[in-house]
Amino acid sequence: MKNQYLLKREIPLYLMLAVPLVLLLIYSYGPMFGLVMAFQKFEPLMGFFRSKWVGWGNFQRVFSFPDVRQVIGNTLYIAILKIVLETVAAILAALMLNEVSSKLFKRSVQTIIYFPYFLSWVILGGVLKDILARDGIVNGLLEKVGFVPVLFLGQPKLFPWVLVLTETWQITGFGTIVFLAAITSISPTLYEAASIDGAGRFRQTWYITLPGIQSMIILMVTLSMGYVLNAGFDQILMLYSPLVYSTGDVIDTWVYRMGLQQAQYSLAAAVGLMRSFVSFILVAVSYLIAYKSSEYRIW
Fold first, then answer.
1. Which residues have C-beta within 8 Å of that of residue 92, sequence separation ≥ 6?
2. Count of beta carbons in the 10 Å neighbourhood of residue 221
3. What is the pLDDT of residues 221-273, one digit of tens each?
4. Fewest C-beta atoms under 10 Å: which of 6, 124, 149, 227?
5. Cβ 163 vs Cβ 239: under 8 Å
6. What is the C-alpha to C-alpha distance for residues 100 and 93, in angstroms, rounded to an integer?
């Protein structure tokens, strides 16, 4: 009777899960059937079942392109810089805000730095193009202090750093809130004991705060590893141009041009499948390192 009562009580909960589960199956797992294109010479008129099967031919063809190595190198370079700089910026911002005693000032700063996180790159891309343009605000200020105007979005050497710095500005607010929440979970008695022993604010931060949020840092970095081969498609698509393809073209933008603009769907599917597989391996390895180094478990 007890088991029947529990089952009857939990039925509404299972029904609540039914709708999101169906949506998950339709929009997340259903499209995975399209991965079969990676092993076919896919033709839309022929469909999945009548297109010619080519096996590993598409994967071999990907690596035959002369610019594919450069694209992979750009992706890794930009993505790793983003992970490192965004993590460091979020930790520093959280540590500084933690030292602020005024709640009004603290909340105001949190709101200001968190606001860009809610804006899409469709909006931010247009804003940044105006700000960094030849006749934009930044170049106007540079000219006033005697510097030569800089073509930020047109110089290959500068463009990766523009991507990294602008995304850091956009996403730092989210990471700051996460690390601030982790800092609040540290027992105040540790700081009191350290203060009695003569430790200043810097030593308290180094020996108490940073070790106290170590697990959260590991979690954030581990989750970021899955996006190493992403590098921010929407951001780059809004900001790049043929002038900076040599340093700004990444796997996703290359797939976009090859797969959608040139209608090479099988090639795009093959690259996407490879990227997903490598991302899975990176997440698994980073999780293993996190567990071995600090015995931290995510699940």
1. none
2. 16
3. 877 877 777 778 889 888 888 888 888 888 888 888 877 777 788 888 888 88
4. 6
5. yes
6. 11
CB-facing half-sphere around the CA of 109: CA atoms within 13 A: 17
CB 163 within 8 A of CB 235: yes
| Confidence at residue 218, expressed as pLDDT on a 0 to 100 scale | 82
Structural element, H or E, at residue 290 = helix 265-294
- Outline where DSSP puts E strands in the chain: 40-41, 52-53
Give the Cα separation of 51 and 40 in Å (integer): 6
Helix pair 68-98, 103-114: axis angle to 10 deg: 170
Phi-psi region of 191 (alpha: psi -120 to 50; beta: other; left: phi over 0): alpha
Q: Which two tokens stand for residue 100?
A: 């602020």
pTM over 0.90: no
Q: How many residues does the chain have?
A: 299
Burial 102-141 (b: 16+ CB within 10 A, else e): eeeebeebbeebbebeeeebeebbeebeeebbeebeebee
Residues 10 and 17 sit within 8 Å (Cβ to Cβ): no
Q: What are phi and psi of 76, to 5 degrees?
A: -65, -45
Checking if the pLDDT of 298 tops 60, the result is no
What's the pLDDT score for residue 166? Answer: 92
Indicate whether 293 pLDDT > 90: no
